[in-house]
Amino acid sequence: MTEFIVQTFNGLTFAGIIFLVSSGFTLVFGVMRVTNLSHGAVFLLGGYVAYSVIGGHTGNFFYGLIAGTVAMAGLGLVVERFLLPWLHHVEMAELLATLGLVYVIDDVSLAVWGGNPLSINLPGVLGSSSHLPFRHIVYPNGRFFILGVALLVGILLYLLLHYSRIGAIIRAGVDDREMVNALGINVRRVFTGVFVLGAALAGFAGVLGAPVLGLYTGGDTNILLFALAVVVVGGLGSYEGAIVGSLIIGLIDTYGTAYFPAISYTVLFIPLVVILLVRPQGILGREAMA
Amino acid sequence: MSKSDDLLTSTTAIVPGIEELTGEASAVKLRTRLNLGERMVGPVAGVACLVVILILLTSGSYLSTIFEDILIFAIAAMGIDFLGGFGGLITLGQAGFLGVGAYGVAIAEEHGFTAWAAIGISVAVLLGLAALTGVVAVRVSGITFVIVTLAIGQIFWGLTYQWTSLTSGDNGISLLSAPSIGPWSLSNTMPLWVTTFIVFVVIMGLLLLMVRSPFGLSLRGMKNNEPRLRALGYRTGIQRYIGYVIASFVAGLAGILYIFSNHLVSPASLTFSQDGFLVLMVIMGGLGTIWGPVIGAVIVVMFQQEVSTYISRWETVMGIVFIAAVIFTPGGIADLLRKGQLVVHRLIVTMRHDGGSPLAVATASADGLGGAARSLDSDGPKGSPPQSTGDRPTTDETAGRVQQ
Fold this sequence. Notes:
The complex is a heterodimer.
Chain A: H1 2-32, H2 39-58, H3 61-83, H4 91-113, E1 129-131, E2 138-140, H5 141-163, H6 165-175, H7 177-182, H8 187-213, H9 219-234, H10 239-259, H11 264-278
Antiparallel strand pairs in A: 1-2
Helix pairs in contact in A: 1-5, 1-6, 1-8, 1-9, 1-10, 2-3, 2-4, 2-8, 2-9, 3-8, 5-6, 5-8, 9-10, 10-11
Chain B: H1 3-14, H2 18-22, H3 24-58, H4 61-87, H5 94-110, H6 115-137, H7 142-162, H8 164-167, E1 173-174, E2 180-181, E3 184-185, H9 189-212, H10 214-224, H11 226-231, H12 236-262, E4 264-265, H13 272-285, H14 292-310, H15 314-328, H16 332-353, H17 358-376, H18 393-403
Antiparallel strand pairs in B: 1-4, 2-3
Helix pairs in contact in B: 1-3, 1-18, 3-16, 4-9, 4-10, 4-12, 4-13, 4-14, 5-6, 5-7, 5-12, 6-12, 9-10, 9-12, 10-12, 10-18, 13-14, 16-17
C-alpha cells in the first residue's frame, strides 16, 4: 500500500510534467491546426539551455527555469514567423516540416551538449526529502514542488482561457477560426501568441522535468510520445482534455513502470486502444477534429 | 478507368487555353504526347534504377551494402506511399513494423527455430500485429492517424528496448543463420541482394497493380471524398484497414530482409528518427507514385552513408533539406520530373506549330509552368492553398474521376 501511495505521487508528478507539455501542444493544434512534432525536441532543448545557465553561469535553478522558458519562447517565435508562413496552413506540410525541425534541433543539441545524460538538481530544501505525516513515507520535496508548479500553471492557464479577452479569442479560435477572423480580430497575432506560448510551456516543462527525468538524447521522443498519447486520449485541441489525459496517462505509465517494468510502454497502449475504440475523438475532443 | 483517360482530362486542366494557341488537332497530339510521356515516367525510372544497380553490381561490396539498404528502405517507403499517397493516410510508425519483421526472425532463431521457420513466424507475428493495431489505427484519419501510428511505432520501440529477456534490450539481437535452398544461401552477398532485388521488384509490381485495381481506385476516392464514397456503398473503414495492414506488412517484409542484410537488429532501428526517415523518402521522392519513394530512398540512404562521412552534422543538413523539400517541392522529385516534362512537351509542340517563333515559345513555356503550378492548388477543404504533400495533381484528378 505504501508503495502504491508513493507510485501515485510519482504518477501525479509525471502527470504534471506531461500536462505542461501536452497543453502547449494541444493549444497550438486547437487554435492553429499545427501539429508540432518538434514539441518534444523543444522540451529537451529548454532543459539543456537551463543546464548551461545553471551550471555555467549562475548556479541558480530559477534563472535556468526562466532562461529555458524564454529561449524556447524565442525559438517558437522564430519558427512561427519564419517557417510556418511558408507552409500556407497545409496541415500535413506543417506536420512534416516540424518533423524535419526535430532532426535539426536534436542534432544541434547533440553537438552542443553531447550524448551523455545530464541532470539538473533542485536547489536547497527542494533537493531534500521530507517525512509525510502518514505511513512514514519519505518523499522528495522537489516532486511536490513540480506538481505544485504544474497545478499553478494549469490553473493560471485555465483562468486565462476562461476569464480573459485573449482566452475568449483563443477558445473562439478553437471553435471557429474563420468566424474569429471575420469578426475583425487579428488572427495572425493570436496565432503567434499561441505558438510562442506553446513553445514556452514546452521549454518550461523541460526545465522543470529535468530533475526528475534527466536530460538525454532520445528524451525528446519519449516526452513527445506521452504528449501525443495525452492529446489522443484527452481530445486533440481540448485544454481540459489535456488535463484529464495527463492524469490518465501519467498515472497509468507510472503504475506500469512500477509493476510491469518490461512492458510499461505497452501498458501505455491500453488507454489509447480503449479511447480509440470507444470514443475516437478523445474524452473531451470534438468529432470534427478526430 | 485507365490511367491514360485520367491523364487526358488532367492535361486539359493543367494546360488551359491550349486549343486557342495551337488549334484542336495539335491539342489532341499534345495530349497523346503527354500521355506517352506520363506513361514512360515509371519505366524510365525503372530502367534508370537498373542501370544504377548494374553499376553498383560491378563495383565493390561496400556499395552493394548501400544498395541493399536502399532497396530495403525503399520497400518500406513504398508501403507508406501506398497508404499515404493513395489512401491519404500517412503512417509515421513504419520503422516499428520493420523492426517487428527483423526481431521476429532473430528472436525465433534464438529460440531454436530454423531460418525458414523463423521467417514464417515473423510473417505470422507481423500479420497479427498489423491486424491488431489496425483495428485501433483506422478508427481515426488525418492528423490523428499520423499521431496514433507514431504512438504504435514507438510502443514497438519501447518493447524492444524494455523487454530485455526477449530482445536483449539496447544491445539488440544477432542473426544466427540465414535461409538457403541448396547452394543459394542468403548468407552470401550475391544471392542476398538478388533476392532483395526480386522482392523489391515484386512488391513494387504488386503495389502498382493494386493502386490501379478497383481497390486502389476506391482508396484514392476515399482520400478525396470519403463521405461520398461511403454514400456510394463503400465500406471505407474496411478499405482503410486493408490498406493499413498491407502497408505495415510491406514494412515488415523489409524488416525480414533487413535482418539478413544487417545481421543485427537493435532498438535503434525502430526509433522515431527512423520513422521520420522513411516518411522523408516518400515525401522527397513524390507521394502517390509508388516509384518516387525509391528515389527518395536513394537520396536518404546516400545522405546517411556518404554525406555523413564528410559532414559530421549531416542530420542537421538532412533536416533542413527535408524542410526545404516540404516547402518547395511538395510533390517531390516525381512532381518535378512531371513538370519538367510538361514544359518540354509544350515547347516542342509550340515550336512545331508556330514555326518556332521565340515569342510564342516563351509564352507557351511560361504558361506551362504557371499551369503546372496551378495544378498543385487542388481543392483542399475550404478551397485552401496547396494541399502540398498529400495531393498530387494527377492523383486528385483520378480520385475525382472515380466518383463520377
